[in-house]
């Protein structure tokens, strides 16, 4: 008992005798153990090889994206845009590359005058023409006829021949069959060799301007409707003539190298069921088609339709009824063949007439703008329509065909066709130039539009043929080159692969790429940011140690 008490006393004495430093160290160890239990255990430090390996993996992914993925994506998705000569195309559209001036050669045939007198009259008349020229698109060039008094082989380059014959007074008249202006002159009206002006030369110049006034008005109308800034003094035309010219140009068909002519016989009953249309065309229309051959080509077909009910049932047709006479739902008119525009010529045999005043025109036919013509015949007692009955309808169709083609109305037929060649050349040249300008503006306005190499080839061909057309204005060669230029320009402008890009805006691209690139891009960006943070932390640690 005494021994246990003494041991406890010894323990108390020993505890009281411990130093304070020992007690403090014990308490700190206890605090460290408690704090270690509260904080999570840190992972072991990464090896330098693992850090480099992770950096290499991130770098390899970005290397593949930047140097392999992006170039392939850029190459496969970049819109190809062929190089276009935009400045030259705008030059054509604005009239800087070619000024449409048509040289018109006029020959003077004066068998009763001496060569010196003819040359002097030509010089003074040319001066009068140049001084009074108010339209720069026409250049009337006078020259001495190489065939004095011999017109058996006319020169195709000569648009008009002035045939001078002596008479009592100065008179003039256009020949009805040939491109000849018959002019009579008093013998004392021929100017002297030293004369600077002449009344007869002024009269001759005025008659020449009058002979080409219709062509001049049509050319002025075409240039006014085009985008070319063509400087000229306004032509003095009345409001009635301007309206008539606009109506005539609206009525004309768009130029085409080939037209398809369809002749249709429609009857209100079972007869007649046949007609001699082939022989009537060969006899009454084919000569005009042959003259139009250098400007247009024609294909022809015919058809007969029985029990054709017109759209108007009244016997006397008014002007308002004409627009609904053709029953398009039941009349099987032939469609366009081979892509060429179709001109319809319809002969309807039935008990119907046109109720118009006799002074206005015919009461049996009418012309439909940009479509064709209709001719009404009374009911036939026979089952066959001979060519003699078809003479007047076919001649009317020939006249209407010339109107639909835009042929002038004054002068002989060869002179009118020569004028038609120049008008069509100007029309097609302006249209091709306008198409090039529209294509250039479209390319500048839409930088994301595709321009395939075929468009560039078409533009090059169009400008090449435009240059040839500009060098041969007024002739059939110039018309042919202008036609090719217009076809190539329109083909380039309406390229299918290029037009499709107009309906694919940039918003569609975002909608396509965002769902694809989002899941791939987010891990790449986050991994790169983590590596950059780790690199900065490691660099900061090295700086502290240093």
UniProtKB/TrEMBL annotation:
Coiled-coil regions listed? none
GO CC annotations, alphabetized:
GPI-anchor transamidase complex
Where does this protein have compositionally biased stretches of type Polar residues? 1-17
Give the span(s) annotated as Disordered: 1-49
- Transmembrane ranges, per UniProt, are 56-74, 510-529
Q: Which Pfam families match?
A: PIG-S
Spell out the InterPro entries in the cross-references.
PtdIno-glycan_biosynth_class_S
Q: Kindly give the membrane topology term recorded for this protein.
A: Multi-pass membrane protein
- Pathway(s) per entry: Glycolipid biosynthesis; glycosylphosphatidylinositol-anchor biosynthesis
The cellular location(s) given in this protein's UniProt record come to: Endoplasmic reticulum membrane
Task: State whether keyword Membrane applies.
Answer: yes
Keywords from the UniProt entry: Endoplasmic reticulum, Glycoprotein, GPI-anchor biosynthesis, Membrane, Transmembrane, Transmembrane helix
**Any one biological process term the GO annotation gives:** GPI anchor biosynthetic process
The family note in this entry says:
Belongs to the PIGS family.
- Output this protein's name: GPI transamidase component PIG-S
Write down the species.
Answer: Daldinia eschscholtzii
């Amino acid at each position: 008992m005494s021994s246990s008490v003494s041991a406890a006393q010894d323990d108390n004495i020993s505890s009281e005798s411990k130093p304070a430093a020992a007690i403090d160290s014990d308490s700190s160890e206890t605090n460290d153990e408690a704090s270690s239990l509260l904080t999570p255990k840190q992972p072991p430090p990464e090896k330098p090889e693992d850090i480099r390996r992770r950096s290499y993996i991130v770098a390899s992914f970005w290397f593949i994206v930047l140097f392999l993925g992006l170039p392939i994506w850029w190459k496969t998705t970049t819109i190809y845009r062929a190089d276009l000569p935009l400045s030259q195309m705008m030059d054509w559209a604005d009239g800087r590359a070619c000024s449409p001036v048509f040289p018109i050669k006029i020959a003077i045939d004066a068998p009763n005058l001496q060569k010196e007198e003819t040359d002097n009259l030509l010089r003074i008349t040319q001066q009068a023409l140049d001084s009074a020229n108010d339209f720069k698109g026409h250049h009337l060039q006078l020259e001495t006829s190489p065939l004095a008094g011999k017109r058996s082989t006319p020169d195709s380059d000569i648009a008009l021949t002035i045939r001078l014959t002596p008479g009592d007074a100065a008179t003039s008249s256009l020949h009805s069959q040939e491109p000849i202006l018959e002019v009579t002159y008093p013998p004392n009206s021929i100017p002297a060799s030293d004369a600077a002006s002449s009344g007869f030369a002024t009269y001759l110049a005025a008659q020449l301007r009058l002979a080409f006034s219709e062509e001049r008005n049509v050319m002025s109308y075409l240039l006014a409707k085009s985008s070319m800034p063509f400087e000229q003094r306004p032509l003095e035309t009345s409001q009635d003539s301007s309206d008539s010219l606009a109506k005539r140009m609206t009525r004309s068909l768009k130029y085409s190298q080939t037209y398809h002519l369809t002749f249709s016989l429609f009857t209100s009953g079972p007869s007649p069921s046949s007609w001699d249309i082939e022989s009537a065309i060969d006899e009454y229309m084919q000569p005009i088609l042959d003259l139009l051959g250098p400007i247009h080509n024609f294909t022809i077909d015919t058809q007969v339709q029985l029990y054709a009910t017109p759209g108007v049932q009244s016997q006397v047709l008014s002007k308002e009824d004409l627009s609904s006479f053709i029953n398009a739902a039941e009349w099987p008119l032939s469609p366009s063949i081979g892509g060429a525009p179709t001109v319809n010529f319809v002969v309807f045999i039935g008990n119907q007439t046109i109720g118009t005043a006799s002074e206005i025109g015919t009461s049996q036919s009418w012309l439909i703008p940009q479509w064709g013509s209709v001719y009404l015949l009374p009911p036939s007692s026979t089952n066959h329509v001979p060519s003699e009955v078809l003479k007047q309808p076919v001649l009317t169709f020939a006249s209407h065909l010339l109107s639909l083609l835009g042929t002038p109305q004054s002068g002989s037929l060869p002179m009118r066709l020569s004028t038609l060649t120049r008008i069509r050349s100007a029309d097609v040249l302006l249209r091709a130039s306008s198409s090039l300008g529209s294509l250039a503006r479209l390319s500048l306005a839409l930088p994301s539009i595709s321009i395939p190499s075929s468009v560039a080839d078409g533009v090059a061909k169009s400008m090449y043929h435009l240059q040839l057309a500009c060098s041969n204005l007024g002739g059939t060669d110039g018309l042919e080159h202008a036609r090719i230029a217009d076809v190539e320009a329109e083909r380039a402008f309406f390229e299918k692969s290029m037009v499709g890009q107009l309906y694919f805006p940039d918003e569609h691209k975002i909608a396509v790429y965002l769902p694809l690139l989002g899941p791939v891009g987010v891990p790449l960006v986050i991994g790169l940011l983590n590596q950059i943070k780790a690199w900065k932390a490691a660099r900061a640690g090295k700086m502290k140690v240093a």
